[in-house]
């Protein structure tokens, strides 16, 4: 039984992960085409994204494997034969519990270590792509228009250090107040923490056209900043978000917020992320137990309908979890209550259903539907 569970789990997890990664590839297609990345680089980026998706996919794959395995056993009357030979439903639980426990441990490792590793490397790869593209467009004696809203010309440009000589910049990033900047020297650098490209010019002048004429302003140092996301086809870099942080970073920020008495939106997001990384791994075990009586209830259902049914129940679980996330971030509900509530509801429902199924008191929905259909036919014949 455990072998069948493990096989179905690997099949479900692999299929869902492939679909999600293909979807993310389609979102980043412009970035990948513009950067001319090879297959090895694309594969490396997908590897970095995998922990983020696996944290969500492992619970659903665990639930699907348990549900489909027991549904097949019930449909083929294997469970009935086992009960007739004296094997109770409780004696079938070790295999689903073992699978749920192993999945919980794997998801915990991803939550505490793998997620931060993947997001950090993915972010570093994106920043390296931005740096590479910045160096490529810094060609001396050429009007570079690769930076959205900025036209850059430098008589001399060093792509490695970013140093510029005799610089002309047309800054149209501020809408109607476009400015022309001339400077004898400058430098281009990338601010990785804030996710920005910074054009730092020295000892120049700013020419700005106004209704009454032209204004000229001299400066010692002037900076033009541009979001790196515009260089990466809209991929958001910016400051590191809670979902990209490691477990230790989240706890350090949470402790600091508690000491300072902060309860703003950013502090609540950190609390929500901490609880989410604990809730999702435990969902593997909770959903495995929930799937056992669910399979008994829908005995006789075809596999493809069973797959849709299990996906529907997980969608309901994820809806409750998403609602808890939203309410926790807005402060309408404590993050602990909002995120742990779905696990509590499904655990209690699963334990009650398991108790009823073990006593053979649970009704089979499929049989009830057949009785209703048969009753409807008889009523029609009488009429």
From TrEMBL:
Query: What residue intervals traverse the membrane?
Result: 52-71, 92-110, 278-298, 305-325, 337-354
Predominant location category = membrane
Q: Where in the cell is it found?
A: Cell membrane
Classify the protein's membrane topology as the record does. Answer: Multi-pass membrane protein
Signal peptide span per the entry?
A: none
Q: Name one GO biological process term.
A: lipopolysaccharide transport
Cellular component GO terms held in the UniProt record: ATP-binding cassette (ABC) transporter complex
Keywords attached to this Swiss-Prot or TrEMBL record, sorted alphabetically, are:
Cell membrane, Membrane, Transmembrane, Transmembrane helix
Query: The organism sits in which domain of life?
Result: Bacteria
Which Pfam families does the record match to this protein? LptF_LptG (PF03739)
Q: What is this protein called?
A: Lipopolysaccharide export system permease protein
Q: What is the lineage of its organism?
A: Bacteria, Pseudomonadati, Thermodesulfobacteriota, Desulfovibrionia, Desulfovibrionales
């Amino acid at each position: 039984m455990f072998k069948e569970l493990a096989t179905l789990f690997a099949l479900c997890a692999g299929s869902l992960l492939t679909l999600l990664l293909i979807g993310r590839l389609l979102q980043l297609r412009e970035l990948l085409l513009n950067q001319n990345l090879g297959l090895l680089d694309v594969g490396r980026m997908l590897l970095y994204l995998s922990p983020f998706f696996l944290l969500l996919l492992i619970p659903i794959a665990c639930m699907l494997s348990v549900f489909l395995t027991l549904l097949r056993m019930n449909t083929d009357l294997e469970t009935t034969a086992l009960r007739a030979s004296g094997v109770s439903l409780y004696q079938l639980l070790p295999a689903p519990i073992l699978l749920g426990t192993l999945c919980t441990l794997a998801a915990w490792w991803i939550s505490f270590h793998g997620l931060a590793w993947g997001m950090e490397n993915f972010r570093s790869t994106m920043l390296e792509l931005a740096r590479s593209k910045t160096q490529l467009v810094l060609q001396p004696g050429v009007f570079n228009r690769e930076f959205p809203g900025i036209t850059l010309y430098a008589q001399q440009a060093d792509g490695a250090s970013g140093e510029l000589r005799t610089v002309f910049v047309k800054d149209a990033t501020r809408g109607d107040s476009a400015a022309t900047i001339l400077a004898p020297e400058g430098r281009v650098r990338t601010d990785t923490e804030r996710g920005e490209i910074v054009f730092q010019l020295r000892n120049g002048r700013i020419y700005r056209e106004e209704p009454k004429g032209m204004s000229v302003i001299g400066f010692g140092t002037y900076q033009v900043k541009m979001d790196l996301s515009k260089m990466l086809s809209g991929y958001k870099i910016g400051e590191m978000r809670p979902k990209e942080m490691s477990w230790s970073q989240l706890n350090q920020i949470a402790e600091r917020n508690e000491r300072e008495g902060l309860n703003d939106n950013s502090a609540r997001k950190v609390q929500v992320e901490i609880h989410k990384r604990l809730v999702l791994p435990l969902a593997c075990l909770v959903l495995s137990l929930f799937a056992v009586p669910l399979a008994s209830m829908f005995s006789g259902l075809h596999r493809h309908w069973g797959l849709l049914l299990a996906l529907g129940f997980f969608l309901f679980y994820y809806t409750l979890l998403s609602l808890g996330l939203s309410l926790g971030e807005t402060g309408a509900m404590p993050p602990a209550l909002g995120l742990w509530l779905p696990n509590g509801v499904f655990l209690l429902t699963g334990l009650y259903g398991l108790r009823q199924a073990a006593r053979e008191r649970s009704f089979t929905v499929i049989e009830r539907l057949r009785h209703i259909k048969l009753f409807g036919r008889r009523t029609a014949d009488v009429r």
